[in-house]
Design goal:
This protein is α+β, with helices and mostly antiparallel strands. It has 2 helices and 8 strands; from the N terminus they run E-E-E-E-E-E-H-E-E-H.
Length: 95
């Protein structure tokens, strides 16, 4: 897990793991912790601290594929926010 500084809309993540074999990006607020997942309309998973609305993580399925195809990544949390490949570069380099 790499320390990063990734901001997507109002969300800030400071840890990332990227599974390049499966093109799955895991973003975390602090160290990974248990959370309750909720799928977004885009097919990603937002993780909340149990019993709260505090976001503790985001799992992005097909991160590189989406960025290559559309040039940006959209996530609904609950409003839709976007980020660019440049903003996600440090996280996509995390292994």
């Amino acid at each position: 897990m790499e320390r990063v500084n990734i901001t997507i809309g109002p969300l800030s993540f400071d840890h990332a793991d990227y599974d390049s074999d499966n093109d799955v990006l895991y973003l975390h607020v602090g160290e990974p912790q248990p959370g309750e997942g909720e799928e977004t309309p885009e097919g990603h998973v937002v993780r909340y601290a149990p019993g709260t609305s505090r976001i503790v993580g985001l799992t992005v399925l097909g991160a590189r594929e989406i960025l290559d195809r559309y040039g940006h990544l959209a996530v609904t949390v609950p409003e839709t926010v976007e980020t660019t490949a440049e903003q996600l570069a440090p996280a996509l380099a995390a292994v």
